Amino acid sequence: MVVNQVVVVDVINMIKMKKIVIALSLFSGIISSAQEKDSTLVFKKRVLESVEVDFLLSYYNQDGSKSAVSGGIGSEELTDIATNIVVAMPLNDDAVLTVDLGISAYSSASSSNINPYDNGGKPTPWQASSGASQSDQLTSVTANYAHSSDSRNFIWNADVSFSNEYDYNSVGIGGGIAYLFNDKNSEISLKGNAYLDKWNPIYPKELNDYEKYGANSINGTIWDQNGQATINYSPTAFKTISSVNRNSYSASVGFSQVISKKLQFSVFFDVLQQQGLLSTPYHRIYFADKANYYIGQAQYIPNYESESNAGVYKLADDIERLPDSRFKLPIGARLNYYINERFVLRTYYRFYSDNWDIQSHTASIELPIKVSDRFTVFPMYRFYTQTQSKYYAPYETHLSTEKYYTSDADLSTFDANQYGFGVNYTDIFTGAKIWKFGLKNIDFRFNRYQRSDNLEANIATIGFKFVMQ
Amino acid sequence: MIKVLFIHQKELTLKNLNKMAKKIILGILLGLIFQSCNAVKEYEKVAINDPDMKLSARTSERYETTFQVYREAAAGANGGKSGGGCGCN
């Protein structure tokens, strides 16, 4: 009898508790639905009033001493000029089509040394060769269609993209949805992308020739470590690559929230899976347990690892080999605070982890300062740190018995500091005009990037936004 | 026998109460969050709608993101592109 009473009391308690939980949930639901009703359409504003054109131009240069093309040493000098034109067109009140055309041209000492033997008999990893691979162009086009619901609380979009380089091309498709609620104070977004890429592999010259034409195919005398002529160079580990596809799939979830009149944040969670050829076919590897062979001028062999080496190049044992799958998990967050009419604080943090044993942290801060109605300057700082991949080892430290190996310093342990500034000019009345387009905005930024392994880079970007009148 | 059953039932009740308490706290937190979300109306979003308050990278930042993806192992979770292109130079 007593037991029955206890059970009955418990059941009553549980029912009460459940009622409280349900009531709380309903309360929240009522609040949120009430908020949605607040945004019931009174006046339907066009998503985009008129055609907008962004013209962007960037100049980038870098230098370092750990070229992956030369097996982890040598010049990483690179210059890249890129430009994009982004046109956003309103198709009707609800839909916008955005087309992004880009071209990027680079010249690189590193990739020039895929074939270092064009350097007038003075091949060296420390200088650019005049080979055809010293420069290339990347062209790309992306089209994105976005459609908003009448309430502007639901947006879906789809995109397609193509890009092409001499040895690489990429086709991408993607789509996503975003849902705004709580009077547009909250937003949840989902996004998915697939990139179907294909390599046209090019290999280090000596390996390519050895594979195609055999041991006697290399022009010029081959030297051993002691500077003696030899015919023993035999990179038997090298095999050409048969599977040239690289597919990347990503899914992203984002949530953003207005916390107060001056504070908002967002979090992003991505899942990325890559499959296929994830190594770069022209990155050389030198094994610690294999003899060294050189071509060029034998007197520079003792100084091979120094920039004073002006005329000898080491023949590769193999190209880098990496697994054909990689799983990446980044999670990021932004927090922006409007301090007052003059200052805004923008912050970003990301944690990243993948199954190649790399973990990284990224943190950045930017402080836009409104110096007048039209001008904003924004100093910025970014810190990045990563641990190395389990497949990475520096120049000439891998063993030929390993299955996977790379000497690409981008997969090594390092810290990086990036600092710079930007200047933004905005004229909402678009006073300055070119043909039918009024200039709404100019955005300039400059950043310097310094890595703990001595890679240094500078990047300057300028962007102009025009609005059709 | 009755005492044993009673104690057993009491433990179950405590467990249920714990679970319920957690759910209630979660419910209250969700309620508070939704309530706080309700605080900012459209006409109060002058600061939130400031271009510098955008919760995404600036348009002119895209080239920096591109070179960072090339020079660093990490990518993604920035609301931008996270694949395509070899990034090998």
What would the keywords be for this entry?
heterodimer; A: 469 residues; mainly beta; 2 domains; 16-stranded antiparallel barrel; three-stranded antiparallel beta sheet; 11% helix; 48% strand; B: 89 residues; mainly alpha; 2 helices; 52% helix
Topology:
The complex is a heterodimer of chains A (469) and B (89).
Chain A: H1 2-38, E1 52-63, E2 78-90, E3 95-108, H2 109-112, E4 135-148, E5 154-165, E6 168-181, E7 186-199, H3 205-213, E8 222-224, E9 245-258, E10 263-276, E11 284-285, E12 293-296, E13 312-314, E14 318-319, E15 325-338, E16 344-354, E17 359-366, E18 369-370, E19 375-386, E20 414-426, E21 433-434, E22 437-451, E23 456-468
Antiparallel strand pairs in A: 1-2, 1-23, 2-3, 3-4, 4-5, 5-6, 6-7, 7-9, 8-12, 9-10, 10-15, 11-14, 12-13, 15-16, 16-17, 17-19, 18-19, 19-20, 20-22, 21-22, 22-23
Chain B: H1 2-37, H2 62-71
Structural notes for this entry:
- The complex is a heterodimer of chains A (469) and B (89).
- By secondary structure, chain A is mainly beta.
- Chain A starts with a helix and ends with a strand.
- Chain A folds into two domains: 1-38; 49-336 and 449-468.
- The model of chain A is unreliable at 20-40 (pLDDT under 50).
- Chain A contains three helices and 23 strands.
- The longest helix of chain A is centred in the N-terminal third of the chain and has 37 residues, at 2-38.
- Chain A has helices at 2-38, 109-112, 205-213, and strands at 52-63, 78-90, 95-108, 135-148, 154-165, 168-181, 186-199, 222-224, 245-258, 263-276, 284-285, 293-296, 312-314, 318-319, 325-338, 344-354, 359-366, 369-370, 375-386, 414-426, 433-434, 437-451, 456-468.
- Chain A is elongated.
- Chain B is flat, with a radius of gyration of 26 Å.
- Chain B has helices at residues 2-37, 62-71.
- Chain B is built from two helices and no strands.
- By secondary structure, chain B is an all-alpha fold.
- Helices cover 52% and strands 0% of the residues of chain B.
- The termini of chain B are far apart.
- The interface between A and B is large, with 119 and 65 residues.
